[in-house]
Amino acid sequence: MSHSQRYWAVVPAAGIGRRMGAEVPKQYLPLGRQTVLEHTLDALYEEPRIQAVCVVHAVDDPYWKTLRYSAPRPLIEAPGGAERSDSVLSGILNLLTQAHPDDWVLVHDAARPCLRREDIANLMDTLTEDEVGGLLAVPTRDTMKEADDQGRVVATLDRSVIWHALTPQMFRLQTLHEALVRARDDARPVTDEAFAVEHLGLKPKLVEGHADNLKITRPEDLALAGFYLQQQERL
Ligand SMILES: Nc1ccn([C@@H]2O[C@H](COP(=O)(O)OP(=O)(O)OP(=O)(O)O)[C@@H](O)[C@H]2O)c(=O)n1
Ligand SMILES: C[C@](O)(CO)[C@H](O)COP(=O)(O)O
């Protein structure tokens, strides 16, 4: 690699939180004295190798401007899209105006505030010389069943090969750009970055993280996130 490698982050924060069913999008719900999104940003800025964070928020988002977040390093804004993958692509396009295509980007959900410092560092250390990139993930713990359309078990799966995909997901900017543009042009829905990269014929690396890096999705998840932040002495 001829240039010195740099690391950027994209935080998709343009969702409406339909499954959460709260009065405000879940990234703006309070967890102690800060919002979910501010805890997430704190976690990313704690990693000194990340030189700037691009927050992707909805164009008409009235909540973003009410935050009084003081970022310790550059914070870039980009407009959100209809799906998560559209929002991530918007962030990538913004970064490509100022970054090198071979720079790394870590995409991390706004709704995952409990990301551990050591998990980001481990992801970066593991992948920095990798050809493809990869993602934090945790192996499944339970016995896994495959169902038919009647909700009846048709198979018990080999759980040793099944992982839960978490974020951050870390790829080179040009790889992720190509993957997301191709997914968009093929009208293929992709629920995470790795899914898009897989369709380029590449194999993202799974880096084991921790299950406390949960995504706040349903109402009961908020209290659990508060508990995990307390355990990490961040609340
Ligand atoms: N069009 C979208 C949809 C989602 N996200 C972000 O992607 C992350 C993970 O998505 P998810 O948990 O599905 O969030 P929501 O779309 O807000 O939730 P729901 O599907 O329940 O509406 C969240 O940080 C969310 O803000 C985004 O930036 N742009
Ligand atoms: C990217 C993600 O957080 C990985 O688990 C996830 O795919 C987000 O979307 P979901 O529809 O809530 O699974």
Any overview of this molecule?
The longest helix has 13 residues. The protein has a single domain, classed as Spore Coat Polysaccharide Biosynthesis Protein SpsA, Chain A (Alpha-Beta Complex). 28% of the residues lie in helices and 24% in strands. The protein contains six helices and eleven strands. The model has no long low-confidence stretch (mean pLDDT 97). The chain has 235 residues and is α/β, with parallel strands linked by helices. It has a seven-stranded mixed sheet, sandwiched between helices. A two-stranded antiparallel sheet has the order 2-3. The chain starts with 6 loop residues before the first strand and ends with a helix. It is globular, with a radius of gyration of 18 Å. Helix 2 crosses helix 4. Bound molecules: cytidine-5'-triphosphate and ligand LQXTBERG. Its EC number is 2.7.7.60. GO terms for molecular function: 2-C-methyl-D-erythritol 4-phosphate cytidylyltransferase activity. It catalyses: 2-C-methyl-D-erythritol 4-phosphate + CTP + H(+) = 4-CDP-2-C-methyl-D-erythritol + diphosphate. It is an enzyme of class 2 (transferase). This is 2-C-methyl-D-erythritol 4-phosphate cytidylyltransferase.
